[in-house]
Design goal:
alpha+beta; Immunoglobulin-like; conserved putative lor/sdh protein from methanococcus maripaludis s2 fold; six-stranded antiparallel barrel; five-stranded antiparallel sheet; 32 strands; MFP_Cation_Efflux
Length: 575
């Protein structure tokens, strides 16, 4: 476009400047209009986004007697009622809910919960509820506020005013001007100011003031466009919704566990109270057989093993005292065999001479020339020679017989038929499964307490009775032996155990079951505190053993706090 320079009043130039200012103001009006409330998303927002952010409407209250957690679905409120002392579900109780002045009984469900329905429960806003529980532990009245979120607006109403490609300019302008929002009035004001500046530029006198006003307007609109509020530029991961029904670890390290999950995991708690107990010391031990109810089977001379008629005994086979377990054929070297054969021949020669003498003596007695005493002497001498021959012959033919030393079962066997064993090799071990001992080593003074227990690797507890203390050191330690009272069937000889021997000194502290103590990520001992009906907090503790099933907490837990005693290891695994 070309303008004449010799315009009398400079109107062409003034019109061009005014048109440029008007276009500039209109360009900045669009960002100013679209500034508030947009989230810069590139897809349609779900209609239930507000409800999803709010989570499931729920209540969570507790008193000295009961804990009550309720979840709302539609107009149906499901209540979980547990004891505050041990988190045990309360069944068979009478529960009623008062909402908007109307008291309604809650019907028990088969899963141990209670349910009540009312249209007042689904009304948006904060609804005050009065819950009355009458159970085995007494009656209690609990007050809670159920917050129900407002329904989400449709997507068309929640639009941010962004320009849609392809929309006609007039239709967009009509829609823009028809929206009763502060942004529309602001855009109209910008448009009016730009129009006024354009007209002012037509006058030479007003031109400097118009340029200054236009610059100020541009700076103001630029700040408004880039400083618009209401949008969320945070790209961090979303935090857990408090109304979620999924167990999860919260940012502060605590764990959120819904009541439904607590009942599946069978979470139980106890109230921490100081108790005075007898102290204990930890010893390392192992299971040994009772020396009076079993034994070892060994060969004195060694040789080749021969199986008995019933076959070689198997592991776990019950045997009786004196029962033949195996035979061992004695080894005889070639020189010894020659000596035995020579000795047997010599004895047989003497037997032949003795038999001949005996025959002559008997003839003399029959003829009256001999005496009966001579016949008797020869018979005795002949019988002795025959016994000598049998004994010498038995050396190379009769094997050694191995028998069970006591009633019991075969605990171990280290031999097969035909095996050559050395003297004093242990071939079988016979034990009595109902009579087992535990042997432990103490590198300090021997404990003098009476209550002693042991803990196996799989967590089984053994009651022990002291049997003896050695007067000689073994590996610079004192040997202690205990008898196991009613040993379980799966207890094995040689199995390692942890012996907790009472020291006879008293210990004062909070006593908890050993299952309540778990290990943190750094290996530290910790317990889980029941801080709220659906929230658990970790606590690092310092513990000492009391016996195989209990520990005493020296630090980390305060009196009156509720600590998880069952299911702590499962809560510790929640991430």
């Amino acid at each position: 476009m070309t303008f004449l320079k010799n315009d009398a009043h400079g109107r062409p130039r003034g019109r061009a400047a005014g048109l440029a200012m008007l276009i500039l103001a209109s360009c900045f009006a669009a960002p100013a209009r679209a500034g508030g409330g947009d989230d810069h998303s590139h897809g349609p927002a779900p209609a239930s986004s507000a409800a999803a952010a709010q989570g499931t409407p729920r209540i969570s209250i507790q008193s000295d007697l009961y804990q009550v957690v309720g979840t709302l679905k539609g107009d149906r409120l499901t209540l979980y009622v547990d004891r505050s002392e041990d988190n045990e579900p309360v069944t068979g109780a009478t529960v009623s809910v008062t909402v908007e002045g109307e008291a309604m009984p809650a019907a028990p469900n088969a899963d141990g919960t209670y349910a009540v329905s009312s249209p007042h429960l689904a009304e948006p806003g904060s609804n005050d509820l009065v819950i009355q529980v009458a159970g085995p532990d007494g009656e209690d009245l609990l007050i809670a506020a159920l917050v129900v979120a407002e329904p989400a607006r449709p997507v068309a109403e929640a639009g941010t005013g962004h320009v849609h490609p392809g929309m006609p300019f007039l239709a967009h302008l009509r829609e823009w001007l028809s929206q009763p929002e502060p942004g529309g009035a602001w855009a109209l004001a910008v448009f009016a100011v730009g129009l006024a500046l354009g007209l002012a530029l037509r006058s030479r006198r007003m031109r400097p003031a118009a340029f200054v006003a236009g610059a100020v307007l541009v700076v103001a609109l630029t700040g408004t466009a880039f400083a618009h509020g209401g949008e969320d530029h945070d790209h961090d991961a979303p935090t857990a919704a408090p109304g979620s029904n999924t167990p999860q670890r919260l940012p502060d390290g605590s764990v959120f566990v819904p009541k439904s999950s607590q009942r599946i995991l069978e979470v139980r708690t106890t109230t921490a109270r100081p108790t005075e107990v007898e102290g204990a010391t930890r010893l390392i031990g192992k299971v040994i057989p009772d020396p009076n109810r079993g034994g070892l089977v060994q060969s004195i001379g060694g040789g080749r093993v021969i199986a008995p008629e019933a076959g070689m005994p198997r592991l776990g086979q019950a045997v009786r005292k004196g029962e033949v377990l195996a035979r061992v054929e004695r080894p005889i070297i070639q020189a010894d065999q020659a000596i035995v054969v020579e000795k047997v021949g010599e004895i047989e020669q003497q037997i032949g001479l003795a038999e001949a003498k005996l025959a002559r003596a008997r003839k003399l007695v029959a003829s009256g020339a001999g005496t009966a005493i001579s016949v008797s002497d020869l018979e005795i001498e002949l019988e002795g020679m025959r016994r000598r021959r049998a004994a010498v012959s038995d050396i190379q033919t009769t094997p050694e017989t191995l028998t069970a030393p006591a009633d019991g079962v075969i605990a171990s066997t280290r031999v097969v038929a035909g095996q050559v064993v050395q003297p004093q090799d242990v071939l079988f071990q016979v034990i009595h499964p109902g009579s087992l001992w535990v042997e432990a080593l103490s590198f300090e003074d021997a404990p003098t307490g009476t209550g002693t227990t042991a803990l196996t690797v799989d967590g089984a507890t053994l009651r022990l009775e002291p049997k003896g203390v050695s007067r000689a050191l073994q590996q610079q330690a004192t040997v202690l032996q205990f008898a196991v009272v009613d040993p379980p069937d799966n207890l094995r000889v040689g199995q390692p155990v942890t012996v907790l021997a009472a020291t006879g000194t008293s210990a004062n502290g909070i006593v908890l079951p050993r299952n309540a103590v778990v290990r943190g990520t750094g290996g530290e001992a910790m317990v889980w505190r029941h801080a709220a009906p659906e929230r658990f907090e970790p606590r690092q503790v310092r513990v000492e053993p009391v016996d195989a099933t209990r520990v005493v907490v020296r630090a980390g837990v305060k009196e009156g706090e509720r600590v998880v005693v069952r299911g702590a290891d499962l809560i510790n695994q929640i991430r």
